[in-house]
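Folding follows sequence. Below is one example:
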Amino acid sequence: MPFKPPVWTWEVPAYLFAGGAAGAAAVIAGAAHFAHADPGLVLTARIVAAIGAVVSPVLLVSDLGRPQRFLYMLRVFKPQSTMSVGAWTLVVFTFATFAALALATPTGRALTGSTALTAAADMLGIFTGLVLATYTGVLLGATAVPVWAANASYLPLHFAASSLGAAAGMIELAGRADTALHRIGLAAALMETVALAVMEIDWRGGHQTLPSGVGRQMIRVGHVFTGLLALVLRLATARWPAARALAGVAAIGGSLVNRMGWMASGRASALQDRSQ
């Protein structure tokens, strides 16, 4: 049956980007904490996650039009609703992220006597961060929009990989040059490169076809930036140190463009379905 195309505004793809990157940054922060990495890395990752935790609800409320609509989703927790799970995850994620920051010194170390609480906050941040980085893909795939539904199993993993690359890039651009961050960015770029290859094979084979147009091209460009370009730049870092920062910029920009592309393709596929 024909249905109306999604009417989400630009704030929604921006939220998908910001929330995903924030969630991935929290995962990096928690992993670095439990691996006893440099406290400066832990602190920077927590700050990036906290910024995303502030920006995300602002973008959602802006799209919804009134704060009451966001608060309404928090009245009752509905595990069968991806919107409800997402809203509650964002609230708990924000609490965990700011709790971890509040329990740390300016150098990133846990305050005296708060080691257990800091560990609990980081563990909660890891769990909610993982959900935040992937559930948006689940949210799109659970809709009736043809192109999103056709890629329901692909979107969560793709969003997680691109969010991880973007988060690593943000932390690096904030001044961190840790080897672990470079490896994380490299792994994310490799996953996105493989995803691009798989997607191209599917498109050429007539499977999970995206409507031609701006949206499809944005998705392709986003994939190239988060995947192939970021991968090549990271591999070139040994001989060209500046390539590392460029790889971070490519991952961040590509992740945002990719989300915008999926929104545009969703509208196009819905309109295409209505015309048939």
